């Protein structure tokens, strides 16, 4: 007697995500996280530079423009302000190379000895390239130089940086404490709450680098919920 042979059936479960969606999410993660960390693909940076206006109007009591005060020193005021070490960029390849090396050495000296009234004046001839100015701004960023300004009012265009000798502290400036008098306590910074930290973390997802990825992931989650509701209904 022959017994019937039941062939095994393969039970197919419905997928939670559409086919290929997880692979798409993996490629999205690979493009947003893994590739920028690979060698040779550094993150681009943008530095915002705020320049003083060419002329600041001064409004008197009557509200009329009486005089125009320019936020730039004259040549005599600059000479009396600091002893300057000058570097000049002319647009010549070799000259600009050695000028940059000289500027880099001077900036490092100013940073190593900031307790003196000294300064560096970098002038750009009309034939100088824009890349030279960008390299100097990058040098200031690397060396953590905070006190500088770019003079575009006078010709040639000049970049200044300087250090200031600290003023001496006299005994009259030091507060005296007597019995029964306490010093003012500095207010401590309040610790952010859990909700504040969570809101700060969620705000990072709205940055331009992650905005499109976040919207795509939210769209994928919404499609999955709609698919589950459609199957359940």
Automatic annotation (TrEMBL):
This is Uncharacterized protein. It comes from Hymenobacter sediminicola.
């Amino acid at each position: 007697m022959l017994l019937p042979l039941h062939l095994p059936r393969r039970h197919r479960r419905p997928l939670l995500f559409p086919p290929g969606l997880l692979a798409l999410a993996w490629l999205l993660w690979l493009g947003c996280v893994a590739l920028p960390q690979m060698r040779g693909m550094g993150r681009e940076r943008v530095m915002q530079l705020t320049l003083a206006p060419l002329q600041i109007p001064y409004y008197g009591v009557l509200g009329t423009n009486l005089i125009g005060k320019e936020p730039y020193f004259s040549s005599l005021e600059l000479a009396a302000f600091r002893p300057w070490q000058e570097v000049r960029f002319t647009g010549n390849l070799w000259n600009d190379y050695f000028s940059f090396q000289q500027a880099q050495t001077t900036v490092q000296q100013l940073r190593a000895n900031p307790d003196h009234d000294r300064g560096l004046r970098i002038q750009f001839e009309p034939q100088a390239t824009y890349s030279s100015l960008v390299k100097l701004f990058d040098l200031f960023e690397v060396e953590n130089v905070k006190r500088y300004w770019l003079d575009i009012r006078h010709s040639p265009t000049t970049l200044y940086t300087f250090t200031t000798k600290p003023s001496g502290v006299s005994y009259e400036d030091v507060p005296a404490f007597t019995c029964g008098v306490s010093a003012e306590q500095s207010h401590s910074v309040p610790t952010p709450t859990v909700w504040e930290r969570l809101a700060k973390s969620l705000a990072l997802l709205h940055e331009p680098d992650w905005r499109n990825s976040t919207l795509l992931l939210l769209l994928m989650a919404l499609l999955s919920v709609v698919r589950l509701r459609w199957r359940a209904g």
